[in-house]
Amino acid sequence: MNVAMSLAAGLGLAAACGFRVFVPLLAVSVAAREGYAPLSAGFAWLGSDAALIAFASATILEIIAYYVPWLDHALDVVATPAAVIAGMVTSASVITDVPPLLKWTAVVIGGGGVAALVQGSTVALRIGSTATTGGLGNALIATAELVASIVTSTLAVLIPLAAGLGALIFAWIVYRGTRRLLSRSSQPSR
After folding, report:
1. How is the chain split among helix, strand and coil, in percent rounded to 5?
2. Distance of alpha carbon 178 from alpha carbon 154, whole angstroms
């Protein structure tokens, strides 16, 4: 895997971790076992039977938990730091043949940052949904997050450049939206 593909796969998987923590880890585990994702040195454990079973179990529990009305918010508290860690682990695992300084900069800033940005966006969306729908819209958001995580993880493994580009576009959209929101809130009211 060349440098651009490797970095794009890492960013895509990190973004997917922001939607769901365990779906991308499961995707990397399956992809490594099937030969679709070469893993970095020290990350071969992701393709083990134990990792596959653990990530599959955790994925199922995470999916179910996001459909329980009060548990989805509690899970967001735990999932936010976990998404950053998972984003760094998944990106580090697939960024291969890259000089160490570039790799670890991309892992910490790119992987952790993109995962945090996506996770923060979904948390804000869920809070807004709870405030406006009394929590009735949260199941729809949970479904959209799950689909986004599956699609992004799959793209990161099969078409890494598309996933990496998608992660960068998402980051830019969130940045622009946040700037607009902050500029509106700083303007004096009439």
Report:
1. 85, 0, 15
2. 28
pTM score, whole prediction: 0.90
Residues, the chain: 190
Q: Each residue of 71-80: pLDDT tens digit?
A: 888 888 889 9
User: What span, in angstroms and rounded, lies between the C-alpha atoms of 27 and 33?
Assistant: 10
Contacts (Cβ under 8 Å, ≥6 apart) of 2: 97
Per-residue pLDDT tens over the stretch 120-173: 999 988 888 888 988 888 999 999 999 999 999 999 999 999 998 998 898 888
Query: What phi, psi does 2 have (nearest 5°)?
Result: -80, 175
Q: How far is CA 31 from the centre of its chain?
A: 17
Do residues 86 and 22 touch, judged by C-beta distance below 8 A?
A: yes
What's the CA gap between 178 and 190, in Å, rounded? 22
Number of Cβ within a 10 Å radius of residue 104: 15
Q: If we measure between CA atoms, which residue out of 10, 42, 25, 27 comes closest to residue 168?
A: 10
Mean pLDDT score of the chain: 91
- The per-residue pLDDT for 190 is 59
